[in-house]
Design goal:
The complex is a heterodimer of chains A (287) and B (112). Chain A has 287 residues and is mainly beta. Chain A has one helix and 28 strands. Chain B has a four-stranded antiparallel beta sheet with strand order 2-3-1-4. Classes of the chains: A mainly beta (287), B alpha+beta (112).
């Protein structure tokens, strides 16, 4: 009798703990989504660009061209949208995530703890009072810059001469654990809180507004993009890109063709994903 | 003219021998270190480990292969770090040191 009761309880437990997962294949796109909402958007793989000898970590769009941070080779590489190399900038000390805005290519140099930018072929250093320890991500809008300060577990927000610290080492609300990327968007600060396996949104005063990714079991959230009222996050270890609304509603999980995705960039109806493991760029199109 | 050529040749040979002997002497005074590391796939952590290895006293030519999962560098013989110290650096970067080796001669790249 006791054995029967135990069996019933065990079976009930197994049924209750199962995630509702359905796997669908649509053409070239394999999507795994946990009960996708009825208004989910539809991004599909358009093409895969193979890069020769480049393992991209950071991505930035410069008009019709892409800048890639080739961290392994200590350089920046400019390619066209088909992956043909147009320019190389060597001797950059482990560049990580980058940004291009107002004609300036902003770069993080992980080894030298500096933020610099290139403008008209010249390199300028961005001056900060705060000391970085492995800056991993940069976002610039006008005179405002935000830097993901990896080993200090914080974001430095600079507006003109004023610098404020956002976040501190921790695992709860407002805590950061090895943040790798940051994006300024509509007055808020979006952070790839990499080793907390999530993304977190802050206001300009450092108050935590939103945390995403736990339910979807992100494993190392390396890159972040905010565009067209959606948030895009790269899931490095699980080879996925997750798409949420600005309010935090899950819209889509992409899983096809990624190999250690480190960064994501969206331009209109096109998404570019830097695959560090595969040495490729996945180009995804919104249908 | 012939004398000048012979003299120049001899001088070049002597310089070559001096450079070679300096290399041999230099190698004799160095210890080469190789650490095989488990889980070296994330560039943020891998190059963070590189940053900390460069802080090891006397460490030169720090090389990290994220793809093959190892790092090498050299130090003056009298500054050879302990295995415990190196294990801690690797663990602080979030990895596990699978094997630590010391050698009087350089390790070949990609040889495991």
């Amino acid at each position: 009798m006791l054995n029967r009761i135990s069996s019933v309880i065990l079976i009930a437990g197994l049924i209750g703990s199962c995630d509702n997962q359905k796997e669908a294949k649509e053409g070239n796109q394999k999507v795994i989504a946990n009960e996708p909402p009825s208004d989910s958007i539809n991004w599909v793989l358009k093409k895969q660009i193979t890069l020769e000898g480049i393992s991209p970590v950071g991505l930035a769009l410069d008009g019709e061209n892409l800048w890639l941070a080739d961290t392994d080779n200590n350089r920046l590489v400019k390619t066209d949208l088909d992956g043909n190399v147009l320019e190389r900038i060597p001797n950059i000390q482990r560049p990580m995530h980058i940004d291009f805005t107002d004609g300036k290519l902003y770069i993080t140099e992980y080894l030298t703890d500096t933020i610099s930018y290139f403008r008209e072929g010249k390199k300028w250093q961005s001056r900060y009072d705060m000391q970085f320890d492995a800056p991993a991500g940069i976002s610039a809008v006008g005179i405002t810059e935000a830097v993901a300060d990896f080993y200090n577990h914080r974001i430095i927000l600079k507006e003109g001469d004023k610098e404020i610290i956002i976040g501190k080492k921790g695992y709860g609300k407002g805590g950061l654990f090895y943040p790798t990327d940051v994006k300024l968007y509509q007055g808020k600060v979006y952070v790839a809180d990499a080793y907390n396996n999530r993304m977190q949104v802050f206001d300009r005063e450092g108050n935590s507004l939103l945390i995403l990714g736990k339910k979807e079991k992100i494993k190392v959230a390396t890159g972040i993009e905010v565009a067209g009222d959606h948030i895009f996050i790269t899931d490095f270890e699980r080879n996925r890109v997750l798409i949420y609304s600005l309010e935090g509603e899950l819209k889509q999980i992409l899983i096809e063709s990624f190999d250690k995705p480190a960064d994501v960039l969206v331009d209109g109806n096109l998404m570019y994903v830097a695959n560090y493991g595969g040495g490729t760029i996945s180009v995804i199109e919104k249908k | 003219m012939k004398k000048i050529k012979v003299t120049l040749t001899l001088m070049l040979a002597m310089i070559g021998m001096l450079v070679l002997s300096h290399e041999v002497v230099a190698q004799d005074t160095k210890t080469y270190v190789r650490i095989d590391v488990d889980g070296l796939s994330c560039p943020f952590c891998a190059y963070g480990m590189e940053k900390n290895l460069k802080k090891v006293k006397g460490a030169k030519q720090v090389y990290i292969s994220v793809q093959d999962g190892y790092t090498t560098f050299n130090v003056p013989k009298d500054k050879q770090p302990t295995e415990e110290a190196l294990t801690k650096i690797v663990e602080d970067a979030g990895f596990t040191a699978r094997k630590i080796r010391f050698s009087p001669t350089p390790f070949k790249k990609d040889a495991k």
